[in-house]
Amino acid sequence: MSKKIALFIIMSSLVLISCEFLKKTYNSGSEAVSNVNVFAYTQDIELGKQVQQEIASNPKDFPILPKASNQKIYAYIEQLKSTILNSGQIKYRTEFAWEISIIDDDKTLNAFATPGGYIYIYTGLIKFLDSEDQLIGVLGHEMAHSDRRHSTRQLTKSLGLSMLLDAVLGQRDAVEQILGQLAGLKFSRSNEREADEYSVKYLCNSSYNSDGAAGFFQKLADQPSPPEFLSTHPSPDNRVENMATLETTLNCKGSETNVSRYNQMKALLN
Ligand SMILES: [Zn+2]
């Protein structure tokens, strides 16, 4: 792998974790405001549909791996999704779409969720991960952003309510603006922590190691040349430790990581 590509991967990976590290200036006052969601959950559903359509109509920027010719890998991810949906912890289990798409882009190490439960995972992220518990952990983290409705709250803050309402009504400019922000949306530190925690809760009664997402964050931190930002701004929230502590506190018993099955699945992408 060339240095350039390696750097790109590391930089891209920052998108996922940036939410926590970049949000330095932040006070409890704005946090209180950010926790008020003036959007109705039904509007999350509408907004999600608009964004999903916009993504589907833009294969250049979002080359979705076709479902018809990739049935095995989609069936595999659907199974992981079902485990989370059946955890009894998803508030909008029947209301939101919970539709997962894979974006065929090996250079991007990212995943994102729209309001209303459309989840997008890049092949770059799937290939970077080592085991099934890591993937299901990251999936849980993203699903939590939708289910806890962090996205609409954050978008309201960054773009304003009227932009979101325009998007709900299908105004193309507004939908495009929202889509432009979603993949790199920087959530508040508390939203990130909550998504991490729910990722553990969703898996706590399953056979999986429930802090799989922490394995991913640890792997990022363990890269041979971590971006300077990571070394100079250690996570104030100790996200890996927090997840491990929650796993113990909740007495989660699962330990499966399923490395070999995960590798078989990854091979389908080559
Ligand atoms: Zn997040």
Notes on the protein architecture:
- There is one protein chain.
- The chain has 270 residues and is mainly alpha-helical.
- The chain has one domain (32-267).
- The protein has 14 helices and three strands.
- The chain has a three-stranded mixed beta sheet, with helices on both faces.
- A hairpin with a 4-residue loop joins strand 2 and strand 3.
- Residues 5-34 have low confidence and may be disordered.
- The site of zinc ion (ZN) has 6 residues, from helix 6 and helix 10.
List the helices and strands and how they pair.
Elements: H1 3-22, H2 28-34, H3 41-56, H4 71-85, E1 99-103, E2 111-113, E3 118-122, H5 123-128, H6 132-147, H7 150-159, H8 161-168, H9 172-182, H10 189-203, H11 212-221, H12 228-232, H13 239-249, H14 259-267
Parallel strand pairs: 1-3
Antiparallel strand pairs: 2-3
Zinc ion binds next to helix 6 and helix 10.
